[in-house]
Backbone:
C-alpha cells in the first residue's frame, strides 16, 4: 500500500511544481522520504494575515490517499481553527465519519480524489475566513468573536514574526 | 460516564481519543472478518440466530427457499461496493459476452471522470488497479484466486474507490434525473463528495441504482429486517434484466448470497 501512496505523492509533487497555486509552495522535506512534506503558505491578500509566510508540516499515512494527511503549522499562529500546538483542524482533513468537531454536513470532506493542493487551498480560505463554529483554539475563537480589534493586533504581530521582523 | 462526573479537561485532546477508539474498533472488526469471506451454506447463518429470535429465523427459512449460500463481507461501510464488485466479477468469470460489454464500459469510464473535471493524477491509480483486477477476470482466474485479490486490502480498497467514482461520475452526469432523489437540497456534486466518494460511507438505494445503471447490469437485494414475515426483494434498476448480483441486506450491512437455481 505504501507503494501506491508513494506513486501518488510523487505525482502530486510534480503537479504542484509544474502548476503551483498562488501563494503556496509545498514538497517533501527530503526526497528520500515522500511522507513528510513542508509547505509555505502566504497569508491571503487583504486579510488579517496578509504578508505573512507560514511554514507547516504535512505527514502522510502509508495508505494515503485513502486516509488524509495530518497538517501542523510549525510557527505561532493564533487562529480559531488551529490548535495551540499548530495542528490544523478543518473538515477536509477528516473523512465524513471522523467527526469530532461536528462540522456542518455541507463542509468539504476528505476522499481519495482530494489532494494536497485542495487541502492547502482550503487552509488559505481558512486563514482568510476563520470558522468559530468548530473551534480548535477556544481562546482564539472567543477573541475573534468578541474582541476583533485585539485579534487583529495579534494577527499583525504573527505576520511580522513569521517574516522574522 | 456517571452523572456528575462530567469534567472537561482543556489539555486533553478528546478528538484524538475519539478517533483512536474508532480505529481500535475498526481493527477488531478487521481481525474477525475477512474483506470477502468464504461461501457458506445459509443454514450456518440460521444457527447464528438464537432460537428465540423467531422473526429472523423465519425470514432465513424464507431466504433459504431462493438462496443456498452466503458469502460474508466485512462491515466497514464499503460492504455494498466490495460485495457487489466481487459478486459481479465472479459472475463475469463464466459470461464472456457480458464481460466484453463490461470491460468496454470500464475502459471508457475514466474519460467520463476526466470530462467532469477530475484531475488525471487523482483518478488514474484507482483506474489502473481497477483494470488490473478486470484483467484477472479476463485471464479466467479461479474463484478462490479472485477472492484472494479482493482480500488484499490495498487492491481491494482501490477497486472500491473506483466503483465509488463510477457512481459519482454517473450521478453527476445524470444529475437532472437524480437530483430529486438527493436529500438535503444538495447538488449532485455535493452529494457525491459527501456521500459517495469518501471511503466507508454507507450505500443507499441511490448508490445501488446508479452503479447498476452505470455498468448496465442488475442487482437483486433481499431485505431482512424485523418488520413483516418474509424478506422483501428489490431489483435495481426496476426494469432491469436478470440480476447478475444477489445481495442480502440486514440493517446497516450487505452480504453476498447465491441463488438456488444457477440459471
Residues:
Amino acid at each position: 500500500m505504501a507503494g501506491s501512496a508513494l506513486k501518488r505523492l510523487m505525482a502530486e509533487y510534480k503537479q504542484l511544481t509544474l502548476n503551483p497555486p498562488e501563494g503556496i509552495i509545498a514538497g517533501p522535506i527530503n526526497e528520500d522520504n515522500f511522507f513528510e512534506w513542508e509547505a509555505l503558505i502566504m497569508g491571503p491578500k487583504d486579510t488579517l494575515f496578509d504578508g505573512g509566510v507560514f511554514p507547516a508540516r504535512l505527514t502522510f499515512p502509508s495508505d494515503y490517499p485513502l486516509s488524509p494527511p495530518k497538517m501542523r503549522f510549525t510557527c505561532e499562529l493564533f487562529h480559531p481553527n488551529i490548535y495551540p500546538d499548530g495542528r490544523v483542524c478543518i473538515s477536509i482533513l477528516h473523512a465524513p465519519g471522523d467527526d469530532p468537531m461536528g462540522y456542518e454536513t455541507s463542509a468539504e470532506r476528505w476522499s481519495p480524489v482530494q489532494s494536497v493542493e485542495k487541502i492547502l487551498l482550503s487552509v488559505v480560505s481558512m486563514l482568510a475566513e476563520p470558522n468559530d463554529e468548530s473551534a480548535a483554539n477556544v481562546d482564539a475563537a472567543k477573541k475573534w468573536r468578541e474582541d476583533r480589534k485585539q485579534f487583529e493586533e495579534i494577527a499583525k504581530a504573527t505576520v511580522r514574526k513569521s517574516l522574522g521582523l | 460516564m456517571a452523572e456528575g462526573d462530567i469534567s472537561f479537561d482543556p489539555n486533553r485532546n478528546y478528538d484524538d481519543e475519539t478517533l483512536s477508539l474508532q480505529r481500535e474498533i475498526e481493527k477488531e472488526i478487521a481481525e474477525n472478518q475477512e474483506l470477502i469471506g468464504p461461501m457458506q451454506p445459509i443454514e450456518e447463518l440460521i444457527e447464528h440466530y438464537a432460537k428465540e429470535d423467531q422473526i429472523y429465523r423465519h425470514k432465513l427459512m424464507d431466504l433459504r427457499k431462493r438462496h443456498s449460500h452466503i458469502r460474508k463481507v466485512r462491515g466497514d461501510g464499503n460492504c455494498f461496493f466490495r460485495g457487489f464488485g466481487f459478486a459481479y466479477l465472479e459472475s463475469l468469470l463464466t459470461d464472456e459476452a457480458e464481460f466484453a460489454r463490461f470491460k468496454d464500459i470500464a475502459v471508457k469510464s475514466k474519460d467520463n471522470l476526466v470530462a467532469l473535471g477530475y484531475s488525471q493524477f487523482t483518478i488514474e491509480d484507482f483506474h489502473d488497479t481497477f483494470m488490473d483486477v478486470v484483467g484477472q477476470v479476463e485471464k479466467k482466474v479461479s474463484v478462490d484466486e479472485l477472492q484472494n485479490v479482493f482480500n488484499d486490502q490495498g487492491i481491494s480498497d482501490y477497486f472500491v474507490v473506483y466503483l465509488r467514482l463510477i457512481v459519482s461520475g454517473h450521478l453527476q452526469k445524470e444529475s437532472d434525473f437524480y437530483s430529486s432523489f438527493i436529500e438535503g437540497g444538495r447538488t449532485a456534486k455535493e452529494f457525491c463528495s459527501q456521500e459517495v466518494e469518501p471511503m466507508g460511507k454507507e450505500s443507499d438505494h441511490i448508490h445501488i441504482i446508479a452503479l447498476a445503471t452505470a455498468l448496465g447490469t442488475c442487482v437483486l437485494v433481499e431485505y431482512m429486517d424485523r418488520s413483516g414475515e418474509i424478506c422483501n426483494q428489490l431489483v435495481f434498476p426496476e426494469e432491469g434484466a436478470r440480476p447478475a448480483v444477489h445481495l442480502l441486506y440486514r440493517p446497516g450491512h450487505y452480504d453476498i448470497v447465491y441463488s438456488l437455481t444457477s440459471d
